[in-house]
Amino acid sequence: MSQVQIKSADSYFDAYLAKPDTTAKGGVVVIQEIFGVNADIKATADWLAGEGYLAVAPDLFWRQERNVALTDSSEEEWQKAFQLMNGYDGDEGVSDLQAAIDYLRAEGCAKVGTIGFCLGGRMVYMAACRTNGDAHASYYGVGIQDMLDEAQNISAPTLIHIAAEDEFVPRPAQQKIADALATHDTASVHIYDGQDHAFARHNGMHYDADAAALAHQRTLDMFAKALG
Asked: How far apart (Å, rounded) are the C-alpha atoms in residues 140 and 7?
């Protein structure tokens, strides 16, 4: 496990790289929550490496502050996380995701997917619409309901995992997403009853082992088929 640098259009950004013990089945870009590339995101990359994927977690906030790594355990960190999120340009950030996908392909991964949580879940949806990634898994992405006009651009297998009790994605937004993607050829929605936002965050206040395991298994099944 190491830190690498990925070239952007006009600079570079850091990323956490987790390597499998054997030849990689494919590559996965792990997209952070609002807390940066912290222990939880690194653990997710390590988990995927353990499943046989070359996983890279790019630093989304590098244009504001490099190598942010916050937790959800203090009000000060929450406020900084929200400040960084509000200053983040997702349209600009998509180019970084494409750069991360290209990086993994240059490292020998013929096919590359994305997985992301919260802010990262939204960025996964944008990656599905705007990059050439081969599979995408979005966990409790915030704001997807406002970008459904782009769903027609999704051509790779895409999973949208939604927490039914998510205060950041209320029921009307959930229904709007589910309805819009109900007949989509490659995208599907799973709503997890009784679960709150960040149910898959390691050691988070809403972590639920069973729901996280179910969502992760669905993601791994998709990656196994799409990434080879």
From this structure: 29
Tell me which residue range forms the domain holding 199. Answer: 2-227
Listing DSSP states for 74-92 in one string gives SHHHHHHHHHHHHT--HHH
Alpha-carbon torsion, ordered 188, 193, 195, 196, to 10 deg = 80
Distance (Å, whole) CA 182 – CA 201: 27
In the numeric block, which tokens belong to residue 111? 């096919």
Gap between the terminal Cα atoms of the chain: 23
Number of separate domains in the chain: 1
Which residues belong to the active site?
166, 197
CA distance 128 to 143: 15
How many CA atoms lie less than 13 Å away from 189 in the CB half-sphere?
Answer: 24
Tell me the whole-structure pTM to 2 decimals: 0.97
Percent residues over pLDDT 70 in the chain? 100
Question: Which helix (H) or strand (E) element contains residue 95?
Answer: helix 90-106
pLDDT score of 1 = 75
Residue entry with tokens 């939204």: 122
Contact 82, 61 (CB under 8 A): no
pLDDT at 3 over 80: yes
Instruction: Please report, for the domain that includes residue 32, its CATH number.
Output: 3.40.50.1820
